[in-house]
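Deliverable D5.2: sample structural annotation.
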Amino acid sequence: MRIEETRVKEAFASYVRNYNPEDEKVNLKIVHTYKVAELCRKIAESLSLAPEDVELAWLLGMLHDVGRFEQLRRYNTFNDADSIDHAFFGAELLFGKEQLIRSYLDFEKDAPKEEELALMRMAVASHSAYRLPKDLDERTRMFCQILRDADKIDILRVNVEVPLEAIYNTTTEELRQSEVTPEVLEAFEEEHAVLRSLKKTPVDNVVGHMALVFELVYPISAQLAEEQHYLDQLMNFVSDNETTQRQFVLLRAHMQEYLKRRRAEISAVEVSGEGKGRTGDAADRRERT
């Protein structure tokens, strides 16, 4: 399967021209797409993958949020709970009846194999799922994890660079006065992602996005999340609610302790040469949660 970056970028640009790039939310997802694609490339390269697999990882980044644009036009929200599952919808646009994937790849000269199409479809459809299916083959799981890591890393940037009120469809007053619900705090303390159904207040979304760091699989992903400093800025969320202020003191302390442990884990793996991903226990525990 030949992946031509120019063709892929032209296909993406052609598709998003159907929407208004001056709309803040549309532009947000255009920028996010390119950022995630480059992060996919960096993660794949860190794993010493073959050049064609690095290109495939980059392609998945370019494809992953295709469903967001039509979701926004139809429902005026990025909240899947209030609209559609944007990841599944994007996979349907690309690999279902509309076969949008054919504008990205040259099927006449070098058609992708069925297993590669299945891999790409799974990666796009599951990139925002709470958990990956347990029965994935090793190669498919790896590419799914690369994409999920890249997406999570850039979501931290989005939450810093874009007004939270715009992302969460709320007002500044509601955001700064809200408290973190107990169930969200519990999920954070257990060091795993927060289910959408647990989020009841605007500030729950902030904590939920901070918790994405707990799910990062690959060492370079955790390193990038720290080096870009978006997590630090997100943890320094300004609240006018005294209870929330106290909650964030505890949340920051917990995250800092976790990152210290994660750095030690990464160093131990690098020294032992046991692998480029998480230790088995850490990854498996999150899959069982």
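Annotation notes: The chain has a mean pLDDT of 92. The two ends are 36 Å apart (CA to CA).
The annotation will be released with the project's public dataset once the embargo ends.
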